């Protein structure tokens, strides 16, 4: 493992791993430390999880964490979701259920999926926002403080479902936003940038050589890339990456 503080103005803490086993061990320890601290201080732990293929191995490993009392006080939200039924093969909720949620003793009422089985994308967006407002007890214009948000990065620099040049990227008043894409992909619902930036801890989990070019730009602070705009107001930002993804950071 290698530690690096790059672009100190933004206080980007980067951890680079050569070994997947050690990378996952580190991630599990971060989860344990953050969740224990919040549960001991406040009584419960809140986390928003991302979909995609990259974090699946982490979720599968996390499912082995045997701590029933802490799982019962954990509330799981989704960072974003495709507007598809829960059983659809492209559903982030389905992936999370199969890799993690269906294997741990977390109460069903503590799981907060994005309600994609609503009649329209707009209704789904509004219902998820209402769930967030109700749980975190925030009024209009206020934002929840997640204990942890786990994010990925796309090859185009997107994170959550915040894409370069997308309308949702500029949303500053709402907690959720609709993302309408081209006819070859599913429309989406996403947490907005202010929600992400109000979190206590934000972790980017990034693997693979295909992410190396864009990761270099993000670490350098390229403001044209949505992932570069993730700058927690008072929380901590951490990049957990493998050697392949880090290959251009020192070039």
Q: Could you walk me through the main structural features you see in this protein, from its secondary elements to its overall organization?
A:
This protein is of the alpha/beta class. It has one domain: 3-Layer(aba) Sandwich (Rossmann fold), CATH 3.40.50.1360. Helices cover 29% and strands 20% of the residues. It has 7 helices and 11 strands. An 8-stranded mixed β-sheet has the order 1-2-11-10-7-3-4-6, with helices on one face. Strands 5-9-8 form a 3-stranded antiparallel β-sheet. Strand 10, helix 7 (212-220) and strand 11 form a beta-alpha-beta unit. Mean pLDDT is 93; it is low at 4-11.
What is the topological layout?
Layout lengths: L1 E5 L5 E6 L2 H23 L2 E5 L6 H7 L5 H4 L2 E5 L1 E3 L9 H8 L11 E2 L8 H16 L11 E4 L24 E4 L8 E4 L1 H5 L3 E6 L5 H9 L15 E7 L9
Parallel strand pairs: 2-11, 3-4, 3-7, 4-6, 7-10, 10-11
Antiparallel strand pairs: 1-2, 5-9, 8-9
How many strand units?
11
Instruction: Give the overall shape.
Output: globular
First-to-last CA distance = 19 Å
Reading off the top of the CATH hierarchy, the class is best stated as Alpha Beta
- Helicity, as a percent range: 25-40%
Q: What is the count of structural domains?
A: 1
Strands of the largest sheet, in order across it?
1-2-11-10-7-3-4-6
What features would you highlight for this structure?
Rossmann fold; 7 helices; alpha/beta; 8-stranded mixed beta sheet; 3-stranded antiparallel beta sheet; 251 residues; 20% strand
